[in-house]
């Protein structure tokens, strides 16, 4: 089922999310709905707070990004394979590498894109949808998408990395999102 995406300003987007266990109610359905919502909205990742659940779950599909690479992208990210994966109860073990800028957007903050600097590598501990434990290293675009979605489960948004002046310049656009004055092709859950 396609779920409404929580809009900027909704308090769930600022909550530090809690871990889940195998007994979390309808966990398989939530994960399936997150995948369906992510693809419907043309996202490459979505975190549980974006569908109004304050739990440490996110899904990403960077295979679709890699498939869409042009020649320049392939030169910049020659080893990028992309992944399609569910992350539950994730914790960052470390980040490293030179921070690099990339133009990010967010389903909860539609029509706003900004260059955000993030480290090129992330090591993550998590369990998958079968509650098998993993500790994996990710690089490049995949590391960036993971860090973006991970921020969601920690109550952070990509705009938090912007300098104060840039945030002030976006204030009106952000207010419009909060009030539902931005048109998107998916349902948004507005703050109350």
Automatic annotation (TrEMBL):
Catalytic activity from the UniProt record: N-terminal N-formyl-L-methionyl-[peptide] + H2O = N-terminal L-methionyl-[peptide] + formate
Cofactor(s) demanded: Fe(2+)
Active site: 149
Keywords, comma-separated and alphabetical: Hydrolase, Iron, Metal-binding, Protein biosynthesis
Gene Ontology biological process terms, A to Z: translation
Gene Ontology molecular-function annotations: metal ion binding; peptide deformylase activity
Pfam family, one: Pep_deformylase
Signal sequence range: none
Coiled-coil segments on the chain, per record: none
Organism domain of life: Bacteria
Alphabetized InterPro entries for the sequence: Peptide_deformylase, Peptide_deformylase_sf
Cofactor: how and how many bound: Binds 1 Fe(2+) ion.
Enzyme class: hydrolase
Binding-site list for Fe cation: 106, 148, 152
EC number: 3.5.1.88
Function statement: Removes the formyl group from the N-terminal Met of newly synthesized proteins. Requires at least a dipeptide for an efficient rate of reaction. N-terminal L-methionine is a prerequisite for activity but the enzyme has broad specificity at other positions.
Family membership noted in the UniProt record: Belongs to the polypeptide deformylase family.
Name assigned to this protein: Peptide deformylase
Organism: Taibaiella lutea
